[in-house]
Task: inverse folding
């Protein structure tokens, strides 16, 4: 069994369509995947529809990655198995989408002030309908308008936290995201904790809001990091998850990193058990 529980599509900051991604995952021998687009679940729905209508031999788990801020630190929260009809969960997605729109509009205004004529509509054209607007789309619009010669230059000059042009989003807090996912019957998991300052303290705090997992297996994590985060999960009786955090094929080789980092197959059974436990707790 080969699994990857952290994958992005063109519905957020990935480059592949959900259907294309499903076919690639099957070709690479994956048996279970989770599409975890930023702040929306449209990619999951498209992939699930494609799998069901074409009898594709792969399992897909409902997922999302919520971008949150805690005291100026960005923390990403993964969620699995949520009830997509839950009103609070949908309200959170709507709030996140409005924040992304506002961010793009404000960055557009600042770009115009320095002579780069990128409108919000220009940015929207770089995004498929209803997808989450993010840095890649803003960077692409800058290049298309001649502001820089390539995407990397756009990031280095304008789409980074230290740039005078960049505007941070007013996102939900990790506490809010964890609580909402949990109340919607989902399993909240802290994503790539190597990126989080004082990760153990944050994990301990978020547990009081319903945090139930740690993404110990991630392409950024060294073997020592994996062991460390697995030990934290064991200490607090949390499930362990993992995935490639795939966004796009390598620009140099075209290689796909889907499923490239080892994720223990037993994780699927543990997630299912946790899902049932939360269902009982919420009933």
Result:
């Amino acid at each position: 069994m080969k699994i990857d529980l952290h994958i992005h599509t063109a519905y957020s900051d990935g480059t592949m369509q959900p259907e294309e991604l499903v076919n690639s995952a099957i070709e690479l021998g994956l048996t279970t995947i989770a599409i975890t687009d930023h702040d929306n679940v449209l990619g999951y729905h498209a992939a699930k529809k494609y799998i069901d209508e074409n009898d594709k031999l792969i399992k897909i788990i409902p997922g999302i990655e919520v971008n949150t801020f805690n005291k100026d630190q960005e923390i990403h929260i993964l969620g699995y198995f949520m009830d997509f009809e839950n009103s609070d969960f949908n309200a959170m997605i709507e709030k996140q989408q409005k924040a992304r729109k506002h961010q793009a509009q404000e960055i557009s205004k600042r770009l115009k002030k320095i002579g780069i004529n990128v409108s919000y509509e220009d940015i929207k054209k770089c995004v498929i309908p209803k997808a989450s607007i993010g840095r890649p789309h803003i960077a692409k619009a800058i290049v298309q308008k001649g502001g820089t010669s390539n995407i990397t230059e756009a990031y280095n000059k304008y789409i980074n936290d230290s740039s005078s042009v960049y505007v941070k989003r007013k996102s939900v807090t990790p506490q809010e995201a964890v609580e909402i996912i949990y109340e919607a019957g989902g399993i909240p998991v802290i994503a790539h904790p190597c990126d989080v300052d004082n990760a153990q303290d944050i994990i301990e705090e978020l547990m009081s809001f319903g945090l139930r997992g740690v993404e110990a297996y991630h392409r950024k994590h060294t073997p020592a990091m994996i062991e460390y985060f697995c030990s934290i999960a064991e200490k607090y009786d949390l499930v362990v998850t993992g995935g490639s955090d795939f966004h796009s094929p390598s620009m140099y080789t075209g290689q796909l990193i889907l499923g490239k980092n080892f994720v223990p197959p037993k994780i699927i059974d543990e997630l299912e058990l946790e899902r049932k436990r939360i269902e009982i707790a919420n009933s």
